[in-house]
Design brief:
Layout: E1 27-29, H1 31-47, H2 53-70, E2 77-82, E3 88-93, H3 95-132, E4 135-137
Parallel strand pairs: 1-4
Antiparallel strand pairs: 2-3
Helix pairs in contact: 1-3, 2-3
Length: 142
């Protein structure tokens, strides 16, 4: 059986004659949009710095919450509040409610960190597209 030329259409090496001459940008960004993307990128880079105490606190809490859920260390809690000597009020917090709250915290922290990382990725993608000429920042001030 002969080998077929399967790779001709999906050749990763671009030929010089295949480049697009005078390619027009496919999209335009306003200066405000580009400034917002740059500001978010700056904030995200500063926030994700390993020396940021808030980030280390969030990661520590995330690890602790994951360990508690994975090791099944949650138990039903009974809180007894004495109002008078003969009258006591008992508050019960079931294990399921605590588990749901902790799982919600885990989901929130993970999604928050993912969102911050998405700001950096978006900036990198748009910067690459600007460098390739696919996106143009509109400098016209109206």
């Amino acid at each position: 059986m002969e080998k077929q030329n399967v790779g001709l259409t999906t050749n990763p090496i671009r030929r010089i004659r295949d480049r697009i001459i005078n390619q027009k940008p496919l999209q335009k960004l306003t200066p405000q949009e580009w400034e917002d993307i740059q500001n978010r990128h700056t904030f995200a880079v500063k926030f994700l710095d390993e020396e940021n105490p808030i980030l280390s606190l969030l990661k520590n809490e995330l690890n602790n919450a994951e360990e508690v859920v994975m090791e099944n260390r949650l138990r039903e809690v009974h809180e007894i509040h004495t109002i008078t000597e003969s009258f006591k009020k008992v508050f019960v917090t079931p294990k399921q409610i605590q588990d749901d709250e902790l799982t919600g915290q885990i989901k929130f922290i993970r999604s928050f960190i993912r969102e911050i990382n998405a700001w950096i990725e978006r900036y990198d993608e748009i910067k690459k597209m600007i460098d390739n000429g696919e996106i143009e920042v509109d400098e016209n001030k109206e």
